[in-house]
Amino acid sequence: MRLQPSNRRRFLENATKVGAAFVAGAGAAQSQSPATEKPAPDDPTQAPGRPARPYGERSRFEKSVRNASGTGTSSLTPLQDLKGIITPSSLHFERHHAGVPDIDPSRHRLLIHGLVDRPLILTMDEIKRFPSVSRIHFMECSGNGFRARATAKTVQEGHGLVSCAEWTGVSLGLLLREAGVQSGANWIVAEGSDAAKMTRSVPLAKATKDVLLAYAQNGEAIRPEQGYPLRMFVPGWEGNIAIKWLRRIKVVDQPYMTREETSKYTDLMPDGTARQFTFEMDPKSLITYPSGGQKLAGAGFYEISGLAWSGRGAIRRVEVSTDAGRTWRDAELQTPVIPIAFTRFRYGWKWDGGEAVIQSRCTDEHGDVQPTLRDLVKARGENWGYHFDPIQPWRIQTDGSVLNALA
After folding, report:
1. 305 within a domain of the structure (yes/no)
2. What is the pLDDT of residues 84-110, one digit of tens each?
3. Which of 6, 79, 153, 320 has CB 3.0 to 4.6 Å from 347, enough for a Cys bridge?
4. 317/241 same-domain check
């Protein structure tokens, strides 16, 4: 039977609507929120699963997320939920001063100039043609941990400005050799492309030793909040110096005394003077389970677990106390133990159901030991908030609830 023109048009219109509805439905199925998804089947073998997705997603039953600060300038890693030593890129803490810029990598350029023989202007493609380097390192904001002394109830709230990842890029020392550093040069000044124009001075000795210009993190392109398409990564030093959205490096003879190293990121001492250029992050450890905000089900065996790190090298020892520091026992260090990276530690403990205070302390390869809060305040005074690394105690109550006992 031959279709009439009007019927043919109606048929084509209906087919178009059905196709559009199918496409919209498929997209909705992929972006469907947990609140609207169907309950998980009792027996998943009796029904086909969802199709593959273009970009991997975690299970909808996993809820761990970063906590954003009230000002929206930072977010905190949920250390209490992590396993192993690598922080997923999506959970890596962030800190910025003027929002996250949207940068087209094809238009981005890096300028290297100043006391050099051959000033360079490099595209991202040209940077990626240099030999690459991949390393696992932690990154920590120098202000991390200070809130644990007052208002923080959980590991994330008090210590969430630290993460550990694999970073891939090109050695800054290699690019500086390509530019030809002149005699008399002792520092570099690095500048970002954000609206704050974040700028920090770095000694040339460090810049040529182990600094990376990173364009990848955990196997994929570095994310915008971490400095896409290029950031300077300075192993073991305070996070503020790892300039994101890097666009310029000037080789100079002395530090430039920028805002971030004069009025900010200095340590006020008891006599009214301030420590400046305190780059290295001190040895630190944290019990992440059990920790503040968690609750033990009842008396019995538990594996105390946590993380330790030092900006000066590898962790050599972690000790755990379950009696408020009166006695200490060595914890097991999980391999690999990598310099300037998270080290996972574990300690088996049988809780008797009574009140207990648990804590950890670490020692790095140079013999530096994590201090108590009392010792730290004695050395640096009350009015300082950077490089905060004292032993963090957690109080376990008889009902199993865990509270911050640092204050």
Report:
1. yes
2. 999 999 999 999 888 999 999 999 999
3. 320
4. no
